[in-house]
Amino acid sequence: MNGILDQLLVVTVIVVCLSYAVLTLGPRSLRRSLAQRLLRWLARAPRAFRRPALVARLERVGVASACGGCDSCGDAKTPAPDSREVKIPVATIGRRR
Amino acid sequence: MTRNPQTEMALADLPPGMSARVTSVSAEAGRVPADLGRRLAELGFLPGEAVRIVARGLLPRAPIAVRIGTGTFALRLFEAACIRVRPEQT
Amino acid sequence: MDSAPSALSPLIALVGNPNCGKTALFNILTGSRQKVANYAGVTVERKEGTLVTPKGLRVRILDLPGAYSLEPLTPDERVTADVLFGRRAGEGQPDFVVCVTDATNLRQNLRLVLSLKRLGIPMVVALNMTDIARRRGIMIDTEKLAAELGVPVVETVGVRSAGVKSLVKVLNDTVLPERKSAPLEWRASSAADLEHDQSEVRRILKLVGGDRLEGVTFSDRVDRVVLHPVAGPLLLAGILFLVFQAVFAWAQWPMDFIKNGVSVLGTYLNTVLPASLIKDLLINGILAGVGSVLVFLPQIMILFFFILILEDSGYLPRAAFLLDRVMGSVGLSGRAFIPLLSSFACAIPGIMATRTIQNPRDRLATIMIAPLMTCSARLPVYALIIGAFIPARRVWGGLELQGLVLFALYVAGVLGAMGVAFILKRLKAGSHLQPLMLELPVYHWPSLRNLALGLWQRIEIFISRVGTIILALMVILWALSSFPAPPPGATGPAIQYSIAGHLGAWLAVLFKPIGFNWQISIALVPGLAAREVAVGALGTVYALSATGEDVAGVLSPLIAHSWSLPTALSLLAWYVFAPQCLSTLATVKRETNSWRYPLIMAAYLFALAYVGSFLTYRIASAVLGAGA
User: Fold this and answer.
1) Beta strand B71-75 with B9-10: parallel, antiparallel or unpaired?
2) By the CB < 8 Å criterion, does C530 face chain A?
């Protein structure tokens, strides 16, 4: 096999895998900024690269939770219920802000 | 409906399988969580409801399984102690 | 093309008592596949989906955690109340409420209907599970019920797609396209209100039927055995035993099948590809790593087969009832059982499920011990080591030794959790009584469709994990293990001169006292991303350090040769206690709103794992050394 082609192929695979790993597992702020940058690139890229599935996937980055293990996790957008106190004062129930 | 205080007892003391009706639910202060009485009422432990112990554990202080209306709940003994019942003659 | 659901689409909330089938209805209405099981508290989070009504109106449907009342006591109930009262930021009140009720348990369910009616949001009552009610001879006059309640009532069967027709029709006819929020008048109900509601419920039930209290039902007859003081615990032990035996006994041929497939593919690639970097990446990086994880799919499926059956049948809360005495003695809330049991699948939904626990302290204690329950991602690690080191023979009259060891590992995790809970109880200032109040649902035959769907979902999740994140990590690990290339004239395997090789040598100093070699030390690092990655990492690392033309994917004979038994046992002990994947820690951070608890958790689990492995290694070395 052509040596240069061989190395190019391997480097491409490594770069793709590395960005995927960072996008799925990295800290949320980093994931989000990376996804934003990729989206901007995609917007300028030729139409053939702008797969709707890829765009949707990137838009979900930083919103969906980091785990790939199960579908039962809640989305990170939802604030976790306050762990300190669960009760709501009776008088304020139903009051509008 | 006449109340007969003699036959009233805590749910925890009701023999398994015997039908009874709830007479009152009250959570005494102390170590019992404050909302216990309200939660029991929300689950359906309300005066007049039919109640029966379905199962009891072997060990002392094991929880009991209670039929209330058409539902069944597992209660720890301190929870069952908050419920007063009157056995029904069948 | 349909427009995306905007914030202006009408919002319809599914509300009801726990375990009345809201999520089943939600799945059918919106085509979602949210988890459904036969116990209270499966849904602890607001889930959204869309439905297009027959006349073309796009509506948003919300699935909400079950609630016994509109005054929340637990975090999951608060999610429901917040949505209903329009307290969530950027989201008004729902425009319409579908109050889902269990037709077999109206006596309890109708009280919530009465409260919801006072809320003043337009609503419809869905009499769910009417098929079961009818089979049990409960006949409800829906027209009369609608007249008494003053709201439309429809019959639904949440497990069949035809069962929601009537509900869709009502939504089609009554939900208005524009959003408007009515002013809300709400007064929290007092004990007297509850009693008043209940007498109203009794009056209505007398009119519409369904008031009859059944004598001895099918569930009662089953419970006579399942909840029996002696037979019950024995049955529970038997079921758990069967599960772990089956994981090894049934998985053999499908595992061999996958193993052979990977081998054949490896040999084929080896012969057709010319010597090149990309060949090395494909065979030693991807195939060796991914193949060694893929082999464990059958065992994970068997485990989930049992978990799904137990969840669907309604047995789980009974198990909680039987074990509550033990849970109570180490200071755990009775409600902790189901979150802990969910953690056997994955700690993340387990930690989420602690939202059903009312007391924040009890909830925190449960979160802290949840990672000690052996999650399914650890199964490949256990299975690999057990398969390589524990002989497949029968002991004590037909019990598989391998299954027995697996069972022991799960028990070790549980005992560790109990110990930690006991210490936490001691640390707590002032004790209080923890409530149980757990609903024991009516038994259902597990539906084959649900079971098949659930298993299929697990396969999808596992394969997609293997194909995405595990694959990516394997490629990265291969790169780290291959570069820089060894200097000319180097004698050892190339990996020793690479980045990963140096890292491994450095980590091995830390892990040497507990018996880990540098290959294991390297594999532990990507294992932090996901447990089963450690198996793949071992596959890659050993493929790269192998000198001969070893075929990829046959990891277990390799490690059986190169590890001592104390090392293997020590690694097992490590995996019982070691900190979970990073996603678990991230979930703890989110659920507790602080970095404190995930950090404490990581630290204590690491310490526990190190001490556990150290003791295991030393004791095993001493015993085996003396025996030799």
Assistant:
1) unpaired
2) yes
